[in-house]
């Protein structure tokens, strides 16, 4: 697998998302195994539009919260088991990396230059989030994404941009996202 953008965690996943001809979420398809190898050329990713990196950050930010929710509820993960301590640790590392490096990485992406922050965020968007969600689970943020695919006016948003709507108002509380509670 040779991804040229870091807009989702799909490159590291055995999960494929299937959509209808109208662009609506249809179902998940779990492939027999994950890719044997994922090689990311950060120079190529740095050359992509910064909006794609931002979408990946939106997708990856959900990983920690969804894995934690699945762990607390005992939900079955995408891999078919229970959330492990390792999955939670990777999901939390993903979150911490994005919080610590995300702004610097976005500045680098806007200038199309490779920096240590950009490389760490690319790793978080693809690997940490990919392993984190498969071994941790999906919850509200991805359910919101799936529902938004039924809205034609939302089709121009990338996957991670739709997932990120959860961060604005988690679980419909009327309050803005405020951290790790």
TrEMBL record:
Record EC number: 1.1.1.6
GO MF, any single term: glycerol dehydrogenase (NAD+) activity
Keyword Metal-binding: yes
Keyword annotations: Metal-binding, NAD, Oxidoreductase
Transmembrane annotation, as ranges: none
SUPFAM superfamilies: Dehydroquinate synthase-like
One cellular-component annotation, GO: cytosol
Family: Belongs to the iron-containing alcohol dehydrogenase family.
PANTHER family assigned: GLYCEROL DEHYDROGENASE, GLYCEROL DEHYDROGENASE 1
Name the UniProt record assigns to this protein: Glycerol dehydrogenase
Organism: Kluyvera cryocrescens
Phylogenetic classification of the source organism: Bacteria, Pseudomonadati, Pseudomonadota, Gammaproteobacteria, Enterobacterales
Gene name tied to this protein: gldA_2
């Amino acid at each position: 697998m040779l991804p040229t953008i870091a807009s989702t965690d799909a490159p590291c996943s055995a999960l494929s998302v299937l959509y209808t001809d109208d662009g609506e979420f249809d179902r998940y398809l779990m492939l027999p195994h994950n890719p044997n190898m994922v090689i990311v050329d950060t120079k190529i990713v740095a050359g992509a539009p910064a909006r794609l990196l931002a979408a990946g950050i939106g997708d990856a930010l959900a990983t920690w919260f969804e894995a934690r929710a699945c762990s607390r509820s005992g939900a079955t993960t995408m891999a078919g088991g229970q959330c492990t301590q390792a999955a939670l640790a990777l999901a939390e590392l993903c979150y911490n990396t994005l919080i610590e490096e995300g702004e610097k990485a976005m500045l680098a992406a806007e200038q199309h230059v490779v920096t240590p922050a950009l490389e760490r965020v690319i790793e978080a968007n693809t690997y940490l989030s990919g392993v984190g969600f498969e071994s941790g689970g999906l919850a509200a943020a991805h359910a919101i994404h799936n529902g938004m695919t039924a809205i034609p006016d939302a089709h121009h948003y990338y996957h991670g941009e739709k997932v990120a709507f959860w961060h604005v108002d988690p679980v419909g509380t009327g309050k803005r996202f405020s951290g790790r509670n």
